[in-house]
Write a structure and sequence with these properties.
Elements: H1 10-18, H2 31-39, H3 42-50, H4 58-61, H5 63-84, E1 92-94, E2 114-116, H6 122-126, E3 130-137, H7 143-155, E4 161-168, H8 173-181, E5 186-191, H9 201-219, E6 223-227, E7 233-234, H10 236-242, E8 248-250, E9 253-256, E10 264-272, E11 275-280, E12 298-301, H11 330-335, E13 346-347, E14 357-358
Protein name: Glycosyltransferases
Main location: Golgi
Function: Involved in the synthesis of glucuronoxylan hemicellulose in secondary cell walls.
Length: 386
C-alpha cells in the first residue's frame, strides 16, 4: 500500500526551520538579550550557533591531548626535583706536588693516586710533601721477605709517596712481582750489574743509592729523600714526621751490631728543642767522624741536590755517596755535602728523645737463592705417612 506524504504549508515550513521539533526549546526573546547578542561579533555568534565548544575547553574534552599535557608537566616537575637534590661535587685535587710529574718515574700501570678531598682538608693536604723512600736490595733468599715487610709498612703511610727500589744487578721478575703485590707506588731500577758478582753488599749500596739520587735529580722530584734499608724496622710516626723537615733533619737510631757484647749501639744527635747540641756514639768513633749519623737516621729536602743555596759550600758539584769510602763513614761524608755544621740541622722530633726506627741486620746472607723463589729439588719424602 503506497504511502502518501503531504507537504507542509509554507508557514509551517518556516516554523520548523527556526524551531526544530527535537531541539531545545527557544527562550523568549527580550530587549536586553537581543541587544547583547546583537553586540557580539559575527564569528562568535556563528560558532555558538553552529554548536562548537569553547576553544579553552578543547583540552578538557579530549583525553589524548590532556594526557600529553599532564605528562609533560609532571616530567618537568620531576626533573626540577631531581636536580635540586643532587649532592655537592667536591673539588678534586691531585695528591702530589704541583712541580712533580708522575709520568717519568711511574711504571707502566702505576700512577700517582688522586684523592678526592673536601675544602676542610685542603689546607692540611697542601702541607704534605712527596716522600721519596730509597731502598737498596739484592737477590737473595730473604729478599721476598724484606720487600713484603717494607711494602706493608709503606702501604700504611699517607700519600704522596714514591718507593724507589734499586736492585744490585739487573731487575729480576721475582722482585718485580713482589713489588707489585705490595700495591705501593714504586720505581724498580737496576744498578751496577757488572759489579754484582765480584762486590759485596756494602760496596754496592753507595752505588745503588747514587742511582736513586740520579733519578731524583734528573726528574727534579720535589720531596723528602729518605734512605730506608730493607733490613730495618720503621714506625709510622717516622714517616709522618719526615714531612715536617724543611732542609735537613736527623734523629737517633739504635744499631744492632754483632761485634758488640750488648748488641745495641745508639747513634744520632742529642737535641735541645730542635737544635743539635751533641751526638750519641761509641768511644772508638768519638773523634774520627764529623757527624755521627746512621744511614737511616737522616732525611733531607730533594731540592738541595740541585739548588746550591740550600746546601753546603763544599758541594759545588753533584751530591752523591762516595763509593771509595770505608763502611761506617759513608753517612758522614754524604752529610758533609749537605750541611756545614749542626746549626743547619733539625732535630726530629724536637727533643730527639723518640726511637722511630731500628737497624736490624738479618743473618741470612749465606742462604742459597732459589730461582724464582721456588724449590725444585730435594722434595723426596723423608718420613712417609703410615
Amino acid at each position: 500500500m503506497a504511502s502518501i506524504r503531504r507537504p507542509h504549508s509554507p508557514a509551517k515550513q518556516h516554523l520548523l526551520r527556526h524551531h526544530p521539533p527535537f531541539g531545545p526549546p527557544s527562550q523568549p526573546s527580550s530587549p536586553l538579550r537581543h541587544s547583547s547578542s546583537s553586540s557580539s561579533s559575527p564569528r562568535t555568534h556563528h560558532h555558538l550557533a553552529a554548536g562548537y565548544p569553547h576553544p579553552f575547553l578543547f583540552l578538557s574534552r579530549r583525553p589524548l591531548p590532556r594526557f600529553a599535557a599532564f605528562f609533560l608537566l609532571g616530567s618537568f616537575l620531576g626533573l626540577l626535583h631531581f636536580l635540586s637534590h643532587l649532592p655537592h661535587t667536591p673539588h678534586i685535587r691531585p695528591a702530589y706536588s704541583s712541580s712533580y710529574s708522575p709520568n717519568p718515574v711511574a711504571s707502566a700501570a702505576d700512577q700517582l693516586p688522586i684523592r678526592v678531598q673536601d675544602d676542610d682538608d685542603a689546607a692540611d693536604d697542601n702541607r704534605k710533601k712527596l716522600l721519596i723512600v730509597v731502598t737498596p736490595t739484592r737477590a737473595r733468599a730473604a729478599q721476598a721477605y724484606y720487600l713484603a715487610r717494607m711494602g706493608q709498612t709503606l702501604l700504611l703511610v699517607d700519600t704522596p709517596l714514591l718507593w724507589v727500589v734499586v736492585e744490585a744487578g739487573k731487575p729480576t721478575p721475582e722482585a718485580a712481582a713482589a713489588l707489585r703485590r705490595t700495591a705501593v707506588m714504586h720505581r724498580y731500577v737496576g744498578c751496577c750489574d757488572k759489579l754484582n758478582a765480584s762486590s759485596a753488599a756494602a760496596d754496592l749500596r753507595p752505588r745503588q743509592m747514587n742511582a736513586a739520587l740520579e733519578l731524583v735529580d734528573h726528574h727534579r722530584l720535589d720531596g723528602i729523600v729518605y734512605f730506608a734499608h730493607e733490613e730495618g724496622v720503621y714506625s709510622l710516626d717516622l714517616f709522618q714526621r719526615l714531612r715536617q723537615i724543611r732542609r735537613f733533619g736527623t734523629w737517633p737510631v739504635p744499631v744492632i751490631s754483632e761485634n758488640k757484647k750488648d748488641g745495641v749501639m745508639l747513634e744520632g744527635p742529642v737535641c735541645k728543642q730542635n737544635q743539635v747540641v751533641g751526638w750519641h756514639t761509641s768511644e772508638e768513633n768519638s773523634t774520627i767522624r764529623r757527624f755521627h749519623v746512621a744511614m737511616s737516621g737522616f732525611a733531607f729536602n730533594s731540592t738541595m741536590l740541585w739548588d746550591p743555596k740550600l746546601r753546603s759550600h763544599v758541594a759545588w758539584n753533584s751530591i752523591r755517596h762516595p763509593e771509595t769510602v770505608k763502611e761506617g763513614f759513608q753517612g758522614t761524608t754524604f752529610v758533609e755535602q749537605l750541611v756545614e755544621d749542626e746549626s743547619q740541622m733539625e732535630g726530629v722530633p724536637a727533643d730527639c728523645s723518640h726511637i722511630m726506627n731500628w737497624h736490624v741486620p738479618f743473618g741470612s746472607e749465606n742462604l742459597a737463592y732459589p730461582k724464582g723463589w721456588r724449590v725444585g729439588t730435594n722434595l723426596d719424602v723423608i718420613i712417609p705417612l703410615k
